[in-house]
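Researcher: Go.
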Amino acid sequence: MRLSYPPNLRIIRVPCTGKVDVIHILRAFEKGADGVAVVGCLEGDCHYLTGNLRARKRVEQARKILDTVGVGGERVKMFNLSSGEGPRFAQYAQEIFATVMGLGLSPIRLAKQKQQPGVEAQITELGVQKAAAV
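Model: Structure:
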């Protein structure tokens, strides 16, 4: 459909959002993501019956954990849409991107970058873009 969404989004496909676990969301932050969006089927329309409902609970758990450790639960969101709603996907991508841009780099990512000397020039370059790996 040639829809535009932020170029620094990283899409990871899974058979069902029910396969997304809290550890996967947290690992994304550990690997340098500034935000995570889980996009699943419409509620009540899951091919695997309750996969998207399980995913919603796991996203909420991840949000609580991120709030507790000081990263910010608002960096994780769950969206539901059907496979034919490409324009809405692009809208959701822009929404999470705007949220993450407003929050800035993840505290985890900032802490890792401070530990690596010589990376500060790259940080400044990325900081201008506030790269949001979603």
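Model: The longest strand covers residues 36-40.
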